[in-house]
Amino acid sequence: MQKYKDRHKGQRCFIIGNGPSLRQMDLGPLNNEFTFGLNRIYLIFPKHGFSTTYFVSVNRLVIEQCSQEILALTMPRFISWYARDYLGFAPNLFYVRDPNDGTLGFSTDPGKRIWEGATVTYVAMQLAFYMGFQQVILIGVDHSFATTGVPHKVVTSTGNDPDHFDPGYFGKNFRWQLPDLEASELFYRQAKQYFEDVGREIVDATVGGKLNVFRKVEFNTLY
């Protein structure tokens, strides 16, 4: 992990969420950017002709059901320590550990610990901070789900997925946990403060996103 400390100091990156809004975007320009992909983002790679610079996944249900797909990826992958039994050890595979102490934290040294923060997006933010990125741009972080219920409850999909960019993302028979949007916002505000305290920023270029924590920007104005 130490080799990634300030590797991208002063540069910008994109954290790509998996919301349906990605279907409204031309992601081609991201081929020349530093990017973090989350969970099953690789389903979009063939359509747009690029893969992300980094990959992050910490949800054990996702890792369990997609282990072979994750192992087939070649970019540096940051995975929850608690799901290591599904992937084992391999080149470019780094495990990160949540302290599991119920605290609202933000890690400046992911090699020691990292907070999962109710969303994998928060993990990517901490990694981006550690790598020294000056600006982090969010896309596909819709922060809105058609499927509702008790946060963190494990459900099994009965058909096409309306909440992500691909209907097969959490398709029929896929087990997943319902989101906790309120908790996610608490952690996002923590990330915002950490970045701003050192003169860096997170901005939100999600098309039609419902998250109101970060400054909004238009994706097309970034080029």
How would a textbook summarize the main sheet?
Answer: 8 strands, parallel
Helix content: 10-25%
Rg to the nearest angstrom? 16 Å
Query: How far apart lie the N and C ends?
Result: 31 Å
Strand content: 15-25%
Strand order of the largest sheet: 5-4-3-2-1-6-9-10
Q: Could you say what the CATH topology is called?
A: sialyltransferase cstii, chain A
Output mean pLDDT: 96
| The CATH top-level class label | Alpha Beta
Provide a compact summary of the structure.
22% of the residues lie in helices and 17% in strands. The chain is built from 6 helices and 10 strands. The longest helix has 17 residues, at 181-197.
Quick tags:
223 residues, alpha/beta, sialyltransferase cstii, chain A, 22% helix, 17% strand
How does the SSE layout of this entry go?
Elements: E1 12-16, E2 34-38, H1 45-48, E3 54-57, H2 60-65, H3 67-72, E4 77-80, H4 84-87, E5 93-96, H5 120-131, E6 135-139, E7 154-156, E8 175-177, H6 181-197, E9 201-204, E10 215-216
Parallel strand pairs: 1-2, 1-6, 2-3, 3-4, 4-5, 6-9, 9-10
Antiparallel strand pairs: 7-8
